[in-house]
Request: fold
Amino acid sequence: MENTADLRIVEEPKRPLAMNPKKFGMWLLLVTVMMMFMSVTSAYIVRQAEGNWLYFELPVSFYISSVIIVVSSIFMQMAYGSAKQNELGKVKKLISFTAILGLAFLVVQFIGWRQLVQANVYLVGNPSGSFLYIITGLHALHLLSAIIFLLIMLAAAFKDKISSGNMTKMEMCTTYWHFLGGLWLYLFVFLLLYR
Amino acid sequence: MENHSHNDHGHEHHGNFWTNYIFSEDHKVIAKQFLITGMAWALIGGTFSVLFRLQLGFPDANLSWLKPLLGGWITAEGKIDPEFYLALVTMHGTIMVFFVLTAGLSGTFSNFLIPLQIGARDMASGFMNMLSYWFFFLSSCIMFSSLFISTGPAGGGWTIYPPLSALPQAISGSGLGMTMWLIAMAFFIISSLLGGINYITTVINLRTVGMSFTKLPLTIWAFLITAVVGLLSFPVLFAAVLLLIFDRSFGTSFYLSDIYIGGEALPNQGGSPVLFQHLFWFLGHPEVYIVMLPTLGITSEIISTNSRKPIFGYRAMVGSLLAIAILSFVVWAHHMFVTGMNPFLGSIFMLLTLIIALPSAVKIFNYVTTMWRGNIRFTPAMLFSIGLVSFFFTGGITGIFLGNSSVDIQLHDTYFVVAHFHLVMGSASFFGMLAGVYHWFPKMFGRMMNEKLGYVHFWITFIGVYMVFFPMHYIGIAGFPRRYYSWTNFETFSGFTDLNMVVSISAIVTLLTQFIFLFNFIYSIFRGRLAPANPWGSNTLEWTTPRYPGHGNWPGEIPTVYRWPYDYSKPGAKEDFIPQYVPFSETPESNLPQENELIKLEGVENTIHVEEKKHH
Reply:
C-alpha cells in the first residue's frame, strides 16, 4: 500500500454546532450570578412570609441610580456599535462615559445606604433591612468588577486592540454590562413589589 | 473564533518543570493533580471515620496510644474528646462529599476524559482550568490547617445548620474552625464553578468533526449534566454561606432568633434557621447527584466495554441522567420532613422524591441488561463497576423508605439514614471513582495496574463496605441517633454493642485495604507493565492518542467520528469492537441497512464527498 492513491467514497461527518467558547463561558458565568441573586431573593420571599418584617420605603437614590444604569447601557451599546465601525476615538469616549456612569451609580447607591441609615434601617437589625444591604452590596460588587472590565477594554482601545475583526472581548464586556443593568432593574422592581 | 484556530494548531507545548507539572494548563496534568489531591483527602477522611468508629465500636477502650497523633484531643482517661468527636464527624462528611467525591471525582475524570473523548486539544480555557485547581488547592490548604488549630475544626456537622454554626460561643467547633470552613468552602465553590463552566463550554463547543450529541460517550453526557447541575446549585450554597458569614461575623439575624445562651438572651431577632436548611438543601440534594452522576457515566462506559456489548438503551441512559438531574432540584425538602413543614407540602416532596426511583431503576436495569449474555471480562474496573451497581441498588431501595414522609419520622437522623446514603452515594460513587482509576490508569500514566492486587482490593473492600453499612440498617431501625458520641448511658442500646464492634472492625479492615490500592497505584506509575495502545479494546477516542500524549493530545490531526461509541460485538464485524473513527464505508460486512444509507447518500451536498486518500 505504498503511495497508492485510491479513490473511496467516504461519508463526511458534519462539524458540530459550536459557538465561540469564550462567549459561551461568559453566558455560563452570568447563569451562576443569576442563580445567586435568585437564591437570595427567594430567601427574601420565604423569610418575609414568616412575618415579623420591617416595612420601609426604598430610598429616592435607588430611583435615580436605576435611570443612571439604563443610560450607561445605552452608552455601552453605542460604544459597541462604534467598535464595529472601527471608530476607535468614539469607542474610547463612550467607554469612558459608561465607566463614569458606572461609578456614579455606585456613588448614588452608597448615598442610598446613607438615606437608609437616616431612616433607621440598618444592616444589623430586622432581616428586611439586612437583605436590602446584602442584595444591593452584592450587586455593587459585581458592578465594580464590570467597571474593571470596562477599564481593561479602555486600555485595549488605547492599544488599538479593538476592531470590527476583533470583537470577542468587546461583545463579552457589553453583554456583562447589560446583564448587570438588567439585574439591577430586576432587583429594583423586586424590592418595590416585595417590601 | 480565534480560540478555535489556536486549538487546531495545537502543537506540543514544551515548558520547564513548573509549567509542565505544577502550573500546567494541560487538562491531563490538572486531572492528575485533582486525583492525587483527592486521594490524599480520601485518606484523611477515611482515617477520621476509623477514629470515630473506634469510639463507637469500643466505647470502653483506652485510646491513649493515639496521643502521638491526636495529642490533647485524647482526654486524660484515654477517650476521644467529645467535641473533637463532633469535629471528626463533620470533617469526615465535608471531606468525603466535597473534596473527594466532588473535586476529586469531577476534577479528575471530567478534566481528563472530556477533551480526550470528544476529540479536543484541551479545555476551552486552560488558564481557567488551572485556576480551578489552584482555588481547590487553596481551599484544601485552609480546610487542612483548620485541623491543627487549638479549638479544632468545624464541629457542627457537614450540613452546618445554624444556630449551632452561627454562634461561635455555642461549641468550640463553631469558633475559628467554622470560620475557616466557610472561607474554604467559598473558595471551593469558586473552583467548582470555574471547572463547571469549562466542562460545559468544552463539551458543547469543542467536539471534533462528526461528534454529534447522539455519538457522545455516556461518560461525557454524565459529566456535562453534572456540570450543569453544579452550575445551578453551587451559587445557592454560596448565597447561604454568605448570609451565614454575615450572621456569624457582622451581627445580622438571617438565621437567628430568640436564642438564649448560658441564660442570656442574644440580641438577634427575626431570623429563621429553617431558611438556611432550604437554601442548603437546594444545593445539598443536587450535590449528591453531582457526586453520583459522573460515576454512573463512568460505569456505563466500563460495563459496556468489558461486557463486549453495546450499552443497553443509550437514549434511555441519557434520558434517565437528565431526569435525575431535573428531579434533583425539586426534592430538597425531603431532608426537612421533621422541621414542622406543612404536611401537604411534605406529600408533594414525597411524591417527587419517589419518582426518582424510576430513572434510577432504568439505569440499573440497563446495566444488568448490558451485561446479560455478554462476554464479560472481569477486570478490576469492571468488578468495581458491578460493585457500584450493587450498592446503588441496595442503597437506593432504602431511599424509598426514607422518602416517605411518615416513615421518615421514625428513621430521621438515625443510622438508617447513614446506611442509606453511605451505600447509595458514598460507596457507590467511591467504587465508580476507583473503577475509573483502574480503567483509565493506562491512559493517565502509560502503564498498567496490577490486576491481582486489584482483585484483592475489590473483594475485601466490597465485602467490607457491606459489613460496615448493612448492620447500620438494624442499628438505625432500633433507633440509634447519628452523630452521638456514646450510647453507653442508654440501657436499650446495650444489645447492639457487638454489632457496632463488627461495624468498626470492618471499617478498619476496609481502610487498611485501601493501602493495597495505594501501593498498586504508586508502584504501577513507575514499575507497571507498559500499556498497549488500546488495552481494553475500547471504541472511544482517548485510545487513539500515543501512550504518553503531549499537550494537544494528538500529534497529528484529531480523528473524525463516524459512529456511536458502543459498536461492540457487532454481528458480522471482523473484530468485537469498531472504534468511533472507523467510517461505515470500511465496514460493509457489519453495517446495518440504515448505516449503508449513510454511505450511499452520494450527491447530496455536505453529506458525502469523494476523497482522495494517500496511504504511506
In short: Residues 21-527 of chain B form a domain with the Cytochrome C Oxidase; Chain A fold (CATH 1.20.210.10). Chain B has one domain: 21-527.
